[in-house]
Structure formats: C-alpha cells, structure tokens
Amino acid sequence: MSQLKLVVQIEEEKEQKAAQAFQLAQQNVTAQKQKLQNLQQYRLEYLRQIQNNGKGGVTAQKYHQHLSFIGKLDKACEQQMGVISRASLVADDRKKQWIERQKRRKAVEMVIENQRIAAERKEMRKQQNTMDEYAAQKFYRAQKEKY
Rounded to whole angstroms, how far apart are CA atoms 111 and 90? Predict the structure, then answer.
C-alpha cells in the first residue's frame, strides 16, 4: 500500500506541474490579447490623429505615408491574432494534460481506497468469524454441561 501512496505523491507532483503549465499558458494568452488590444488602441488613436491633422489639409505624400503605416498596423494586428490563436491552442493542450493528470491521480487514489475497504471488510470478517467461533464454543460447552 505504501508503494501506491508513493505513486499518488508522484502523480500529485505531476498534476501540480501540469496545473502550473496550464496557468502559465493562460497568462500568456491574456498577455497576447492585451498586446492586440494595445495595437488596436494605438491604431485607433493614430486614425484620430490623422483625421485631426487632415482637417487642415495634407500632402499626397503624407497621406500615402499615413495609409502605409495603417497597413502595417493592420498587418501587426493580424499577426498578433495568429499569436493569440497559437497561444490558445497551447493553453487548451496544457488544460487537457492537467485534466489527464488529475484523472490518473484520482484513479490511483481510488485503487488505494478500494484496497482499504477490502482490508477493512477482511478484518470485519475475521472478527465475525472469531465471534462466531467463540459463540459456537460457548454453545457447545453449554450443551455439553446439560448432558
């Protein structure tokens, strides 16, 4: 039984490591989403700035530069969405690994519990047999004394 307790301890450690990996992966997804939000916010502010500056008039070259930069920001946003997608897949994978580790630990704990219950039942049967034997001997002696 102590070997199984060692297995449970090892499984608990693996489960904790898997939980930490999942947590780190979730934090990465959150950080990547924040980066996207920052990029989108910067793009929006840049567009507002262009509108404000454009009221006074801009040259064609300046207008082209602004459009080019907006295109680069759009591309950066698209790339960041890809990063978020990959990070989410990693987080999902880490979650699955964590859940699998939980299942393994619980399975070993269930084996230990079943063994404990079986040992308890065996002990109860042993005690019952002892009590039955004692009662039978007492009955036998009582019958012997009658005759």
Answer: 32
